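Table S2 (continued). Query chain:
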Amino acid sequence: MVLPMEDRYSVTRNQLLDQIAYALGGRAAEEIVFHDPTTGASNDFEKATKIARQMVTLYGFSSSVGVVSYGGGGEVFIGRDMAQAREYSDEVAHQIDVEIRKILDNAHDEAYRALNTNRKVLDAMAKELMEKETLNPDDIKRIFKAVKKVPKRKLWLSKTSRPVSRKGPIPIPAKGSTTAKVAAKKRADAKATKEAAKKSASKKLTAKKPVPKKPAPKKPAPKKPAAKKPARAVKKK
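Corresponding output:
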């Protein structure tokens, strides 16, 4: 399965070769099934050529051209306009053309071999498409169970004189593993601590001085009741 290019930050050389072989699969299928290809693959050729050109002129994926960037003008070398300005010699331009064609030819051969080896899968896919018009992921997964994988590509080095390192990369913890969970928790805790520190500092800077409270007014003392005058005695006549 080929993932969209925009979903990756970086792409390996083999992944780019997969993209080219994938783009040329339509033409290869026409050659295998009908023995008479159509013009429908022209857009695929354009895409494949663009990727191959970038591999040679931008990414340094050619042993003969080397790790040099020749893609400043963005021109397509195969079928290019000779009047277009460039900063390299005719010899280099020819070398670039040869490398691009080599990549495209090899990818075309890969696509042809893969489809020819899996002709039954190709026919099963075509049959279901004619019946359903649209296939869901489960349909594709079921059909692809019978796929026979093609051999892996040979190891590529930018220079054959360089020694091959037999030591692989360090293992990467799988998602959901204990190591990955611990690392993720540490990152989350560190982020939370940092955010809390920022908020605390911000509060200290913006905090207002407390306004002193005014003392409550004293309540007046209750008035004592006036003393009653003693009643005068009335004399009887």
